[in-house]
Amino acid sequence: MGEFGDFIKPIFDTLDLYHNQGVDPRAIAISFKQLAENHPHAELEIVAMEKRGQDKFLLRAKTAATADKSELSAEYFATGEVIIDPPVESGRKRIKYTPTNVEVSILAERVQYYGKDGKLITESIKDYTRKTVRQEFNSLDNFLKRWSAAEQKQAIIQELNERGILLEALADEVGQDFDPFDLICHVVFDQPPLNRRDRAQKVRQADYFAKYSEPVRAVLNALLDKYADEGIENIEDISVLKVQPISLLGTPMEIIKLFGNKQKYLAALQDLKTQLYMAS
Fold first, then answer.
1. What is the 8-class DSSP label of residue 108?
2. Hey, is 242 helix, strand or coil?
3. Exposed, middle or buried: residue 205 (CB in 10 Å: 0-12, 13-18, 19+)?
């Protein structure tokens, strides 16, 4: 298997659902939940949700060996766009999102969910985020330490999603140009946020690039552009080397050789991420 092999044989039966349009992951979660409820004997369980390229999203689910995958796939995509309620006065739709064990409805700039006592709770998205995050990170220092220690920032983002943090809804309110790090630091810990483009620009203005050759600087600059446009998750995936404009600098193997080897490329990427979040 090559370094960039795309196929790994699964150790259990899986159902792969590819989405070719810009689908809201919350809508995907709702559609999948409905499918699982309709087919309990299929024993559906999500094992991966990931972005593929610039315009595809993969949901991979574990299934029972006897499940009819063709039937499941056909029913899943036959449901079309998920709209839970008609638009409210603000023009925004109400969407239900189900994290690990609490169903949350997003209505305008507020959320509704049932507390442990069974009572309906309504509060702002910011208050909900602040309270939920502080259950895991009781101080800014704790959050910063965990974020800095994570080699893959996507792991922290996934953990936040699994705990019910509505990052996309939060970005709708605070600003789409901020990445999850700044959304959490700003909303939960009252820190002034930097948008992704400003973070990238501060890295460029520092002396960070001086130690690299010109071809390597070109790659790192392209990665910064990708971060500014799409976020940290995209540059952490090594397949970003196959995507324009980075792919214009060479094949993935050619780009990696500019750094010496794959380990040195990953080390430079890790250093780049460290620089991004040092900016303030």
1. T
2. helix
3. exposed
C-alpha torsion 9→11→14→17, nearest 10:
-40
- pLDDT tens-digit series, residues 50-67: 665 555 667 778 888 888
Q: What stretches in the chain show pLDDT beneath 70?
A: 1-12, 19-27, 30, 49-57, 77-121, 279-280
Find out whether 82 and 30 touch, Cβ atoms under 8 Å.
yes
Output b/e per residue, 49-73; b: 16+ Cβ within 10 A.
bebeeeeebebebbbeeebeeeebe
How far, in whole angstroms, is CA 68 from its chain's centroid?
30
CB 110 within 8 A of CB 101: no
Alpha-carbon distance of 195 to 177, in angstroms, equals 5
Specify the residue for token string 């705990």.
163
Q: Which of 125, 91, 97 has its CA nearest to residue 109?
A: 125
| Segment holding 59, helix H or strand E | strand 56-62
Residue 34 structure tokens: 């409905």
The two tokens of residue 280 are 């303030």
Q: What is the spatial distance between Cα 279 and Cα 202, in angstroms, rounded to a whole number?
A: 6
Specify whether the CB–CB gap between 97 and 167 falls below 8 A: no
Angle of CA points 135, 169, 47, to nearest 5°: 70
- Angle made by CA atoms 151, 153, 158, in degrees to the nearest 5: 125
SS3 120: strand
